[in-house]
Specification:
The complex is a heterodimer of chains A (265) and B (241). The radius of gyration of chain A is 18 Å and the shape is globular. With 265 residues, chain A is an alpha/beta fold. In chain B, 75% of the residues lie in helices and 0% in strands. The longest helix of chain B is centred in the N-terminal third of the chain and has 38 residues. Classes of the chains: A alpha/beta (265), B mainly alpha (241). Chains A and B meet through helix 2 and helix 3 of A and helix 6 and helix 7 of B.
Chain lengths: 265, 241
């Protein structure tokens, strides 16, 4: 660990939540994927969204940086209420582009398929957004990038290209890329689902370390043990509705999701 | 076989001029055409409806008519029409409009724009959506996603195909001998007319075309191999087993 800013420290939940979603509704064609979901992620805490495939958990996560635009509802991210343009019926029809870009710099994402940019080196992937979105100098961005590559144990591969790395290594680089923006909120969309089983732990280890640092994170995962272990809050989504939420213990004990949890418990 | 004419400095001059003109035409058409091709691809993928429609019509017309017909159309048709405009002979554009090279380059640029435009469009569509989504998720603007992520990846994907397009372009160049532009074929025609030798000049320029194609292929292969992020398994110098 060299230079560079310290990560956001444990902050009490008295400050505004990192994200507050109110009654989100999202359709894909005729299919209602989110049926009025409300969710709050307090600053400095970890929230995991669990649920069966098709329950809407990825869609909910993707609404948090507006990769999916909800059709109805309210959303506040990092102290800012999203300015939706609505039609007379109240349906959301557009967004404020500039606000969107500003917010996305504060809420970064780790994808299931890593989605690294294969024509940029490891370091190039990490410094791209800090330089072009936050306007940092190359020198400053590089220092930041090296710091976070060190953090995920990938500093020695800074000049390699993504195609030369294993899945686990790529996902760790993707985590460094998300950290280098120094976001208020980190989103993880099934970060280990595309990995070989023997690579899962190296990525979970990094995420657990971030949780211990007190970073604000929202993750969608199928790793039940892991979710139970790192989360302050667990949200069980079933067919587009929150079926249970609360501390991991509460949710795991809830009869409504017992059946779903059974294989993991 | 009689190659004694090769020592004639006049013929050497024709051949040299023909070779230089060929390379120039290739370079100008490749650069101009590929820029146009990116525009055509973008228009079809993301342009407003009328522009997308226009790009489709352009592609269809250019790809649907023979290159030689297009060349005649621009040189004898458009060129002669322009010539008739009052005052054009005094304008600053006249030296350009009198020059067959201008019409050859124009025709070829449009041709490359249409053919390679489709190649680039296909390549842009095959860039994994997740890579572009990651760009947007990190707050890059639409234009930044395009020129930092989408286009470089698309070009990487279609480089081997574009190499093929460039080779076809090189071998379309002899068509310009029909509009009195001194290319290699024109040089060979002059030599044939004056020496009554048919095969030798043709053999010579065929050899020059072949050599140029090989050099072009290797150079573009080099570009391909040095493209950032190229996978090691594909790093073979000659694309043969």
């Amino acid at each position: 660990m060299t230079s560079s800013p310290p990560p956001s420290s444990h902050s009490p939940t008295t400050t505004a939540p990192a994200v507050k979603a109110d009654h989100l509704i999202k359709h894909f064609g005729d299919l209602e994927v989110l049926k009025g979901v409300s969710l709050e992620v307090p600053e400095g805490t970890v929230t995991s969204i669990i649920g069966a495939s098709g329950s809407g958990k990825s869609t909910l996560l993707r609404c948090m940086n507006l990769l999916e635009r909800p059709d109805q509802g309210e959303l506040a991210i990092a102290d800012e209420t999203i300015r939706f343009t609505r039609n007379p019926q109240g349906d959301i029809i557009d967004l404020d582009r500039r606000q969107l870009q500003r917010l996305r710099a504060k809420v970064t994402m780790v994808f299931q398929q890593f989605n690294l940019w294969p024509h940029l080196s490891v370091l190039g992937n990490v410094i791209e957004a800090p330089m072009r979105v936050k306007g940092l100098s190359r020198k400053r961005a590089t220092a930041l990038g090296e710091h976070y590559l060190e953090r995920v144990g990938m500093a020695d591969r800074r000049d390699a290209y993504p195609g030369f790395l294993s899945g686990g290594q790529q996902q760790r680089v993707a985590i460094a890329r998300a950290l280098a923006m120094e976001p208020r909120l980190l989103l993880f969309d099934e970060p280990t689902s595309a990995l070989d089983p023997e690579r899962v732990n190296e990525v979970l280890g990094v995420i657990r370390g971030l949780a211990d640092e007190g970073r604000t994170m929202l993750l969608v995962t199928h790793e039940m043990h892991f979710a139970r272990e790192v989360s302050d809050q667990l949200v069980y989504l079933d067919q587009g509705r929150i079926a249970a939420s609360g501390t991991p213990e509460d949710v795991f004990d809830d009869p409504r999701c017992r059946q779903f949890m059974a294989p993991a418990a | 076989m009689d190659f004694s004419w090769l020592s004639d400095p006049f013929y050497q001059g024709y051949l040299w001029e023909g070779f230089i003109n060929t390379l120039w035409l290739l370079a100008v058409s490749a650069v101009g055409g590929l820029i146009l091709a990116v525009g055509v691809a973008m228009a079809r993928l993301r342009g407003p409806r009328p522009l997308a429609w226009l790009a489709w019509a352009f592609t269809t017309v250019i790809r649907g008519t023979p290159l030689l017909v297009q060349l005649f159309f621009f040189y004898y048709g458009v060129g002669r029409l322009l010539e008739g405009l009052p005052g054009i002979r005094d304008s600053m554009f006249w030296p350009l409009l009198r020059d067959p090279f201008f019409f050859a380059a124009l025709t070829f640029i449009l041709s490359v724009g249409a053919y390679s435009g489709e190649v680039i469009r296909g390549a842009m569509q095959s860039v994994p959506r997740g890579e572009l989504e990651a760009g947007r998720a990190f707050g890059l603007s639409g234009f930044q996603v395009l020129y930092r992520l989408w286009l470089p990846r698309a070009i990487q994907l279609c480089l081997p195909t574009l190499t093929g397009e460039m080779i076809l372009l090189l071998k379309s160049v002899p068509l310009v001998s029909t509009i009195a532009l001194m290319d290699l074929l024109q040089a060979a025609n002059i030599i044939r007319d004056e020496t009554f030798l048919v095969y030798e000049p043709l053999l010579l320029i065929a050899g020059i075309y072949l050599a140029t194609t090989i050099v072009l292929t290797l150079v573009l292969r080099l570009v391909e191999l040095n493209f950032p992020g190229m996978r090691p398994t594909r790093r073979r110098w000659l694309p043969i087993r």
